Amino acid sequence: AIVILELPGPTVVFSEELPVGLRHEEIAFKFCQITRRFGALPVVDVTGGATGGKAPADSVLKYYRAQLSNMRAYTWNRENKMHAVRLLSTLFEKRQIQIPEIHRTLREELGLYEFEYKEHYYLYHGPKGARDDLVSALALAVDAWDRGWVPSASSRNISQSFV
Q1: How far apart are CA 150 and CA 62, in angstroms?
Q2: DSSP character for 136?
């Protein structure tokens, strides 16, 4: 999925759920076009080499790096996800994030998003059998903004692809 935030709002200005089964070459090309159209910083989830652990990392990341020279890599782990989801939750609680009605699928995923408490940690995800890629993309974009990867003073956009 791809989500683009306009800052300093933040306001979602683009969201798209990518079809399952697209090749990474196709995703990288599409992502590059969209980020250029919005002047966005590309932030790519590279967890498992962007393959979910199914292939060596460099065999896939090369497509993204070739298309997106200014790409920032982001790896999901339990701590990063917890921080990103809590940050996103805080923005909602303070009514500091805007998601226009046009982003219906993202809004629906947000409404279904849930957490489970395990013995010493939380798991965040969509319900079994449902996608949560747009929520993850949004959380990652917010986290990248919070990390200072995009200077708020310049009012630049930031984007993220969850692949």
Answers
A1: 23
A2: H
Least confident of 3-7, 31-35, 78-82, 91-95: 78-82
**Residues whose CB is less than 8 angstroms from the CB of residue 3 and which lie 6 or more positions away in sequence, other chains included:** 12, 14, 15, 106, 134, 137, 138, 141, 159, 160
| Residue-wise pLDDT tens digits, 100-155 | 999 999 998 888 776 666 777 666 666 676 678 898 899 999 999 888 887 554 54
Q: Give the model's pLDDT for residue 65.
A: 87
Q: What is the 3-state secondary structure (H, E, C) of 3-71?
A: EEEECCCCEEEEEECCCCCCCHHHHHHHHHHHHHHHCEEEEEECHHHHCCCCCCHHHHHHHHHHHCCCC
CA distances for 17 relative to 3, 83, 95, angstroms: 9, 23, 24
Residue type, position 49, single letter: G
Q: Any bridge partners for residue 124, and if so which?
A: 115
Residues 6+ apart with CB under 8 A from 109: 126, 130, 131, 132, 133, 134, 135
- Sheet containing 157-161: give its strands across: 11-16, 2-6, 157-161, 40-45, 72-74
